[in-house]
Design goal:
The protein has 20 helices and 20 strands. By secondary structure, the chain is an alpha+beta fold. The structure holds adenosine-5'-diphosphate (ADP).
């Protein structure tokens, strides 16, 4: 049979049918069918001379062209089938099914066979009907457009379509414009539709779609002989369309799975229960260090990949997968091709069809394990540093103690020296001033006792004896320290003024330690002022009541008119921070720790118009 672009051409069809007609002249019954088909094909092709020739030879042909009944059955027309056409459809639909190609073939065959001007293929989806293709004939042949649009009154007579769907009967209209049932349909009126053929596409009693054909040039355009062929084509197409759709769904699913495998985000491998791995993506191969060739030659197997200590895990997972279809993800290690180990997490699932094959999803944990190791390392390091710090702290505390001894004992020794020299001077005086000598010796005794007290306290601290708790009158403690520092004050030319508040509560604490603080602050202030050249050098000591979070307490401020801390008020409390050539830098830090140990607070600020204020609070009762 002659074909054009793989499809039967009407002219060729007409010639062939005529040829058959002559060849089967004696088989009258069949010959009548072919004669009718040939006349019809010539008619459609427009070969009027040929039609006239046939009609003259066989006048019955014109009379035979009866209007087909809309409900004419397949059985009645089966003898009229063009077997070649049906075979063609059959063959085309039994090959590899590609939906678009199938639609193309169905539409072209339908249009050619029916001699339709226009045709629509409507496919049913999930509760919807959508136009899948539209074919139109023109002088250039058949133009096919693949669509996916909803059914609408602008595309076809909906009344015809819904009649077919409702009654499950095909509709053939010889002249739609005159049909009492459908003439009023807006589409039929607007497009002056004449011949209509609307065929159900059913597959195993399930609606696959509808084939709609129309011809607006002539009534009775669809020959009854062709309608039978079309019905068979439609039946075949319905079946194939359904299959093609299933194939397409499977192909879409397959493509999605392929995408997952080829995306190479995680390792994926297909396995058999005998341990062989017959398919794997690149990531999996990279994890285990094998190449594709190894896989092809069957050299990759679970047994070789799994270290002995993990065998029980994989066996348990396989048993679980066999029973339930999947195994919970678990961590294990693989032995790579180069014998190194790689940590992985793996999940298994068996294929639905056979529980002896399945797929494994594998994630390389190397980076995570390294991160964990790093974290553990840094934890270890952190604890080490903490230990080192604690050690350094102890060393610093010892240093601090040593410095503190030197610092605190230095004061009374220096004062002793001063007083001893003074005593010598009074003794050498003419006449010697015994009273003054006596007073100087008294101060020496006090200083010596003080030095002894300090050393005893420090010894106590070293021995970890609990701090002494006694009632300390802060004003009295201050007066005593002022007396001790008189010589220092005189040397630096500073006047010492006090504003001590009455009725202050007594402090519960260590008198010596509190006096150590006061002594430090006073000496610091006097030393600072000894460097100033402008203005009077005044040391002002003020006490007052303080109401802290821990109840009533005292507030002490040591104010001087020296150069002040400047930018160093925060640094000044750091151990070993000093700006003095012979300084130790321990005074303020020790003061702060003593005040803290008594539950108080010590801080520094600027004095106005110049100088520094170092002040502290102490709660009356320690919590
Ligand atoms: P040092 O024994 O070196 O004086 P301190 O801890 O007592 O150590 O003081 C640290 C530093 O704080 C001092 O070197 C000094 O620079 C500064 N400083 C302390 N008291 C005062 C003050 N009243 N006025 C100005 N600077 C001060």
């Amino acid at each position: 049979m002659a074909r054009q672009n793989g499809f039967i051409h009407i002219e060729a069809l007409a010639n062939e049918l005529a040829a058959r007609f002559f060849a089967h002249r004696r088989l009258d019954k069949l010959a009548r069918v072919y004669r009718q088909d040939a006349r019809y094909a010539y008619l459609r092709w427009g070969a009027d001379a040929k039609v006239r020739q046939l009609e003259e030879a066989f006048p019955h042909l014109r009379a035979e062209e009866a209007a087909p009944s809309p409900t004419s059955t397949m059985a009645a027309s089966v003898e009229r089938l063009d077997l070649a056409t049906v075979m063609k459809v059959s063959q085309a639909t039994s090959g590899p099914i590609v939906l678009d190609a199938l639609i193309d073939m169905v539409m072209r065959t339908a249009i050619e066979q029916a001699g339709a001007q226009r045709g629509l293929l409507i496919l049913s989806g999930d509760d919807t009907l959508r136009i899948a293709a539209e074919a139109t004939t023109s002088a250039d042949g058949i133009a096919l457009r693949i669509h996916d649009v909803p059914v609408s009154a602008t595309m076809l007579p909906e009344s015809v379509l819904y009649h077919v769907l409702r009654t499950h009967e095909n509709v053939t209209l010889n002249d739609a414009a005159e049909d009492p049932l459908f003439a009023a349909d807006p589409y039929i009126r607007q497009h002056c539709v004449r011949s209509v053929l609307c065929l159900l596409l059913m597959n195993h009693a399930k609606l696959t779609g509808v084939l709609y054909l129309e011809n607006n040039l002539a009534p009775r355009a669809f020959s009854p002989a062709r309608i039978a062929v079309l019905k068979l084509v439609a039946a075949q197409a319905a079946n194939s369309l359904e299959n093609a759709r299933l194939y397409r769904d499977i192909a879409t699913r397959e493509a999605k799975i392929r995408r997952l495998v080829d995306a190479n985000i995680i390792g994926i491998a297909s396995w058999r229960l005998d341990g062989s791995i017959f398919e794997a993506n690149d990531v999996f191969l990279r994890i285990v260090g094998y190449d594709r060739e190894d896989l092809v030659y069957g050299q990759v197997s679970w047994h070789d990949l799994t270290p002995p200590e993990f065998r029980h895990l994989i066996e348990r997972a396989e048993a679980e997968a066999r029973q339930t279809g999947r195994a919970q993800p678990f961590e294990k290690e693989y032995i790579r091709k180069d014998s190194s180990r790689v940590p992985v997490i793996i999940g298994l699932a068996t294929f639905e069809a056979s529980r002896t094959e399945g797929v494994a999803f594998v994630l390389d944990l190397t980076e995570r394990k390294q991160a964990e190791e790093k974290f553990r390392d840094s934890e270890r390091r952190y604890r080490e540093v903490q230990r080192e710090l604690a050690h350094a702290n102890r060393v610093a505390t010892m240093g601090q103690l040593a410095a503190s001894i030197a610092h605190e004992v230095n004061q009374p020794i220096a004062a002793t020296l001063t007083n001893a020299q003074a005593a010598q001077r009074w003794l050498n005086a003419q006449p010697p001033n015994i009273d003054e000598v006596g007073r100087a010796l008294g101060r020496i005794v006090k200083d010596a006792n003080r030095a002894g007290d300090v050393l005893a306290r420090i010894r106590g601290m070293i021995k970890q004896t609990p701090p002494r708790r006694e009632r300390v009158d802060i004003n009295a403690a201050i007066s005593e320290v002022i007396e001790l520092t008189q010589g220092e004050a005189a040397k630096s030319g500073a006047s010492v003024q006090t504003a001590l508040a009455h009725g202050l509560p007594c402090i519960e604490g260590d008198r010596i330690e509190i006096q150590q603080v006061l002594l430090n602050l006073l000496v610091n202030a006097l030393e600072a002022m000894s460097t100033t050249t402008d203005g009077a050098r005044t040391l002002h000591i003020v006490t007052g009541a303080a109401e802290g979070a821990d109840g009533p307490g005292v507030h002490v401020a040591v104010c001087d008119s020296g150069p002040g801390f400047g930018q160093n008020s925060a640094l000044a409390f750091d151990p070993f921070y000093t700006t003095k050539p012979a300084g130790l830098g321990m005074g303020l830090s020790i003061c702060r720790s003593i005040v803290h140990a008594h539950g108080g607070r010590l801080w520094a600020s600027a004095n106005l118009p110049r100088g520094a204020i170092v002040q502290f609070t102490l709660p009356a009762k320690q919590v």
